[in-house]
């Protein structure tokens, strides 16, 4: 969205006149219970779909969901829309579709329309919640208290992180009570129902029966939780559903993200073999064997664990800082989001550190601080009735498990994913927008089989999660790609 806004600013500064019927912001679109599309951002159409806060109690009022549509080159109004379901939670589908606008037609086929949306509580969709009520000083103070580094960086860090976590939930509870009474109405089951509302409204626009509408979608990462939740709630409304980079939805709703660490080290170990194969011209951290590369990387880990590097800032305009073990671990977790693309950059930084220059790591851990509450609020309200991470004993067990599964990422994962922040949330939500039963299609098979997809090495949404979720939906298929990475975003031929 920032890219689109910047483009508009540039056009204005050059004296270009925009189409007077074109809008460049969702605030300029009136919400409607009917699906009304408005030309927007030059190549798209936009809509703000008005939906009930609670589908079982419409007297509570409504909120609006922002949708963005890109027409395929050969698509018509009657053509199916493929809905891109963003990851996160907290990811913006508006940003997702605008970023990949040039390739979605190549991936899925130009005979479709492509739609994405900001789920409840995210960016352009309501209801919104700011747990710190715009007080950036309070948010910074909390991050300073809570985000002390990796969970085992000191003898007291785990306890500090556990006990300080209650502050966050208390702030959010207070903000809901005094400023955003429906700020917690952002659960994934509610989003699934919003998607049902969307496909029915779209069918009506096309002159089709709303009751026959089916969801055609491609969900990634957390978007697969939205997809499996939809399939569990509305199995007879599943059209063509592809879920890629699959999360274990049951663990997600339990606030127990254990499967996620299962293949992290497998992905990191690929670095050594690929760096060696690439040769010294293409990998700056090259070594004569993969084992040599791994040993040197492990040596850097050991050195920073025991010897933080002070940077005085004398020879630069930067402030004095201390490069820590947590900064190195932040490099690792940032890299595994897209390992094959990010490995060369990691190699350059490791090479610099080995040569005595650790400045590229400065501030990396602080850069993982969260600045938006949307993603945390969604996962916390989703799990509050089933939360398996509330006591300090449960937190210690979770940290120990993560560390035992991954020597590279395990000790930063708990503070990175921040599931402990959910322990003091106290949402009062109706049963209708909270998960009541296991996520499964075992009772009623989906109207069309779900296609689950995964890389053979998935460092953040492990292959075992895809196998687990596929087993819960009879007739579903699991497609594997021999690769390392979180999901399969680019496929050469249409897949729906």
Automatic annotation (TrEMBL):
<feature type="signal peptide">
    <location>
        <begin position="1"/>
        <end position="18"/>
    </location>
</feature>
<dbReference type="Pfam" id="PF00561">
    <property type="entry name" value="Abhydrolase_1"/>
</dbReference>
<keyword id="KW-0732">Signal</keyword>
<dbReference type="InterPro" id="IPR000073">
    <property type="entry name" value="AB_hydrolase_1"/>
</dbReference>
<dbReference type="InterPro" id="IPR051601">
    <property type="entry name" value="Serine_prot/Carboxylest_S33"/>
</dbReference>
<dbReference type="GO" id="GO:0016787">
    <property type="term" value="F:hydrolase activity"/>
</dbReference>
<feature type="domain" description="Peptidase S33 tripeptidyl aminopeptidase-like C-terminal">
    <location>
        <begin position="440"/>
        <end position="485"/>
    </location>
</feature>
<dbReference type="InterPro" id="IPR029058">
    <property type="entry name" value="AB_hydrolase_fold"/>
</dbReference>
<comment type="similarity">
    <text>Belongs to the peptidase S33 family.</text>
</comment>
<feature type="domain" description="AB hydrolase-1">
    <location>
        <begin position="80"/>
        <end position="270"/>
    </location>
</feature>
<keyword id="KW-0378">Hydrolase</keyword>
<dbReference type="Pfam" id="PF08386">
    <property type="entry name" value="Abhydrolase_4"/>
</dbReference>
<dbReference type="InterPro" id="IPR013595">
    <property type="entry name" value="Pept_S33_TAP-like_C"/>
</dbReference>
<protein>
    <recommendedName>
        <fullName>AB hydrolase-1 domain-containing protein</fullName>
    </recommendedName>
</protein>
């Amino acid at each position: 969205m920032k890219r689109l806004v910047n483009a508009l600013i540039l056009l204005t500064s050059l004296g270009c006149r925009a189409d007077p019927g074109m809008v460049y912001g969702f605030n300029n679109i009136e919400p409607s219970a009917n699906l009304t599309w408005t030309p927007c951002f030059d190549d798209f159409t936009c809509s703000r779909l008005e939906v009930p806060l609670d589908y079982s109690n419409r007297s509570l009022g409504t909120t609006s969901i922002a949708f963005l549509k890109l027409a395929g080159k050969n698509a018509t109004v009657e053509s199916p829309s493929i809905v891109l379901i963003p990851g996160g939670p907290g990811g913006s589908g508006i940003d997702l579709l605008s970023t990949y606008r040039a390739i979605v037609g190549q991936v899925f086929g130009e005979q479709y329309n492509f739609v994405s949306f900001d789920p409840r509580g995210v960016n352009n969709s309501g209801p919104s919640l700011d747990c710190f009520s715009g007080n950036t000083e309070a948010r910074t103070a909390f991050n300073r208290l809570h985000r002390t580094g990796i969970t085992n960086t000191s003898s007291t860090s785990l306890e500090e992180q556990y006990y300080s976590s209650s502050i966050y939930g208390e702030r959010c509870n207070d903000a809901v009570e005094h400023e955003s009474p429906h700020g917690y109405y952002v659960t994934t089951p509610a989003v699934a129902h919003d998607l049902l509302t969307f496909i029915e409204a779209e069918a009506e626009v096309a002159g089709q029966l709303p009751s026959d509408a089916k969801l055609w979608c491609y969900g990634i990462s957390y978007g697969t939780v939205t997809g499996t939740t939809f399939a569990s709630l509305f199995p007879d409304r599943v059209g063509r559903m592809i879920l890629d980079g699959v999360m274990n939805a049951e663990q997600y709703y339990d606030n127990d993200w254990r499967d996620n660490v299962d293949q992290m080290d497998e992905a990191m170990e690929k670095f050594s073999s690929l760096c060696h194969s690439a040769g010294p011209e293409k990998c700056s951290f090259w070594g004569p064997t993969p084992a040599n590369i791994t040993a040197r990387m492990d040596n850097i880990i050991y050195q920073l664990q025991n010897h933080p590097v002070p940077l005085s800032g004398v020879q630069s305009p930067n402030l004095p800082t201390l490069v820590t073990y947590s900064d190195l671990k932040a490099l690792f977790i940032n890299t595994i989001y897209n390992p094959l693309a990010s490995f060369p950059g990691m190699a350059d930084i490791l090479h610099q550190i080995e040569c005595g220059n650790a400045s590229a790591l400065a501030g990396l851990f602080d850069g993982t601080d969260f600045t938006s509450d949307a993603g945390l609020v969604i996962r916390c309200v989703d799990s509050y009735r089933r939360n398996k991470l509330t006591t300090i004993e449960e937190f210690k067990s979770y940290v120990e498990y993560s560390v035992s599964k991954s020597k590279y990422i395990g000790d930063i994962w708990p503070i990175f994913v921040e599931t402990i922040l959910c322990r003091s949330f106290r949402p009062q939500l109706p049963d209708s927008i909270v998960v009541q039963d296991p996520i499964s299609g075992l009772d009623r098979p989906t109207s069309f089989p779900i296609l689950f997809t995964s890389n053979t090495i998935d460092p953040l949404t492990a292959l075992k999660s895809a196998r687990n979720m596929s087993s819960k939906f009879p007739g579903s298929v699991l497609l594997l790609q021999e690769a390392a990475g979180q999901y399969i975003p680019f496929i050469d031929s249409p897949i729906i």
